[in-house]
Amino acid sequence: MMLRNLALKGKIEVSEPSKTLRALNFxxxxxxxxxxxxxxxxxxxxxxxxxGSIPARAEELFLQLKNPQHxxxxxxxxxxxIGNPQELRQKPLTFVRQVLALVECPYLMExxxxxQTLKLFPKDAIxxxxxxxxxxxxxxxxxxxxxxxxxxRGHVAQFIERRDxxxxxxxxxxLTNGAxxxxxxxxxxxxxxxxxxxxxxxxxxxxxSATLTLLNGVSCPYYLDEDDDWSISINxxxxxxxQARQGGTNVRALVVxxxxxxxxxxxxxxxxxxxxxxxxxxxxVLLADEVYQENTYNSALxxxxxxxxxxxxxxxxxxxxxxxxxxxxxxxxxxxxxxGGYVELSGIDPEVEKQLLKLASIGLCSxxxxxxxxxxxxxxxxxxxxxxxxxxxxxxxxxxxLKRRARRLVEVFNSLEAVTCNPAQGxxxxxxxxxxxxxxxxxxxRRGMTxxxxxxxxxxxxxxxxxxxxSGFGQKEGTFHFRCTFLPQEEEFDCFTELVQNFHKxxxxxxxxxx
Amino acid sequence: MMLRNLALKGKIEVSEPSKTLRALNFxxxxxxxxxxxxxxxxxxxxxxxxxGSIPARAEELFLQLKNPQHxxxxxxxxxxxIGNPQELRQKPLTFVRQVLALVECPYLMExxxxxQTLKLFPKDAIxxxxxxxxxxxxxxxxxxxxxxxxxxRGHVAQFIERRDxxxxxxxxxxLTNGAxxxxxxxxxxxxxxxxxxxxxxxxxxxxxSATLTLLNGVSCPYYLDEDDDWSISINxxxxxxxQARQGGTNVRALVVxxxxxxxxxxxxxxxxxxxxxxxxxxxxVLLADEVYQENTYNSALxxxxxxxxxxxxxxxxxxxxxxxxxxxxxxxxxxxxxxGGYVELSGIDPEVEKQLLKLASIGLCSxxxxxxxxxxxxxxxxxxxxxxxxxxxxxxxxxxxLKRRARRLVEVFNSLEAVTCNPAQGxxxxxxxxxxxxxxxxxxxRRGMTxxxxxxxxxxxxxxxxxxxxSGFGQKEGTFHFRCTFLPQEEEFDCFTELVQNFHKxxxxxxxxxx
Lengths: 515, 515
What we know:
CATH class of the largest domain in chain A: Alpha Beta
Shape of chain A: globular
Oligomer: homodimer
Strand content of chain A: 5-15%
Strand order of the largest sheet of chain A: 2-8-7-6-5-3-4
Structural class of chain A: alpha/beta
Largest interface: A-B, 98 and 98 residues
Radius of gyration of chain A: 26 Å
């Protein structure tokens, strides 16, 4: 620094350059060529709180806890900031992993090894692993075609047909690195100028807002109704689009996350029909983020896909331009690390499809492990097959447990002073509201944080429980929330909820306006 | 269509709207909401020939060849358009696949199964698989932290230190979905406005040009010298940057691909030092694409990393801002489908690093299979370990064979009339020049194709050999090339080269200007 200052000083004194030149000397001698000033405004402004400062602090704590002399009042970091089931010890499905392992080591399926292999792997897993090679996959180490393996897309289409009762075309399916990549691709198709806007729920999963910011698009928020279990109201959609259009925004699409992230709402078929109506009337493309379709906990609100709803409505509703997303990361698979996912296109202009294919091809192809995991998700063991019973048992055990944990965590939050929490009808999250005291708000301001971030940071520092402040998802002005998954295993739930309850009590006492 | 025309007609006749309104009615009634006009100019203009029309036609042929009554004069599609070794039956390394399989199925390593497992897997593969869990990986199905697993980044840093003899910091390493994703991230950091340019080699791997187009950046080509084995000349770098800067472009970085894609050139250390000098003098960030670092075939030009070269040069050269890329897809691994890769940052502003971390976090994390494959690449079996001998034998066999095939294919091309081909000093590609006749050029024009695309299409239709026209990589005006990998297995090489030779002879006869 010393040296740099001297060099700079020298330059200026000797040559007395013009103001511009002086600025240039500054930039070439003190600053890096690539510095924060070079970074595009959209990138600088993009925010992604699910991996933001609180989870980053949690990772620091995780390392500090390894020191046996640590002085924290807790023993572990509980990562409730992200829907990462297996990180919190949800067991992977045995059949899925068996097939993946066999695909990696085809020698296990050679005749000379088969007797040994059969002692460790069931026949149907072997048969399934062999099917990939029989269908033309040379190796799990090859790039596939950019859209993803053809026969896997065929299985995805069959899955959609069984689920919805309407035709699905493998050529309209793109396999991607998780649903995230598919969403990014589709937003790249939609955003073509500074005035193009997309309606997104608020609170929303910040992949949407962050990617829109990066692409220079406009986020047009519509608010979910906290007083009505975070439902979507058509009036609110109308208000949102009117406001955006009056402001000169060219609103081109609507994003619906169902079941919802971060709030866990599920949408009734009647409301879905109204949403389809709204899109058709307003000339909007619909992006249906349905990655939590297997995570529903309210039997009165079972999952229905927007594809099925629009097809059943018939007429011009069938022409609705729809992108539907699904993923291997959620549901009862929870295979986040595989980066498997897909998007189905329905009613999309073939010329636009070609542009999507080009985008996919620049990254060559999605992870083969992700493609195979997707295949196993859409085509699981069938009744009568050797692995069927275990698969169903593992699946049901996860689903039942998630349902119990969802209910329990909501109850815990509702038992806390000044906290209210809607039931988690679906997905993997609760989104409680905390009414923070003036004192707590003032303290947050003093520390240069939003009040919800202050609460979450205190929660983390005192319990090891990592959550995401509501401000990372968007929330109504003056309200404070946080997102907390209910993914800790049931045997850890007592301890986990006790930590949260005790912390909250102390926090409310410490920051009581009456004290 | 009928109905739509009527509706449109009605609208116009009844209301006689203004020209603008009429255009609006057109667009809302005939066109899709999302149509080609909505697609951003950069996306429409981006091109990626490696997966372009010729490879797409190859996939059609692949399907048609399945029909036993096909009438093609060949039996298979030979995919020489892309560096995808395992698709052309390069065998994966046994140890790599064993570890990946064991990581998928931890039950294989439980005590009750160990005796059986040891009959199918070597001890060191088991130990290695266990090490991931011992190092804190809960499951291969978890999202990792966005930058990639910490201890794997530690191994990458150790690998770089062993390779270069200079320190490397795990915190400056980002694990990504192949090197492609890393390159995209870095270009996103660099491009902040319409006037920002990046110098790229020409011919170049079109990931760079396509991504720059998508990001609204400026590609500033510098030409490789075909007459000097596709070398990089400093004078040409100077010409390129001067021209770009005179045109108002803010040139911020230089891309060097070494060994080179698509031309297979290798750069001498002396020339690398000149390139580092040039970057320092011209205030450029250097992007070193070193994914082919294990693929060198000329002992006079062994691989050296730009990191090592700049560190050895010392002084202010060490401050050069450098991004170095590597991948599991090439070398002797060839594990393209795993999507493993990394970028090492050296001399980069910490504030810029934070922006990179944000970009990485929006996609959550890279493929875990890719991360583990990266780990195995940088930390292979050591001498004395059970798998060492087989690993070295498999590795050497692939490297030796690639070397022979590189030489052979170049010889074949040089034996053809009107074809010249520089030796492939590295990478996986030949890039022969074909001097096409006026007649061939005229026929291409008649068909609305570039002459090189016409040649490649004819080659494909007559032999099943899929290549990429030189125009997809950039080439000097009036010259015609194509890129062809030498990845067919040696036992197929006679047949493959005979097909190419016979085709070329017939093509030259058919399109001879003298006939």
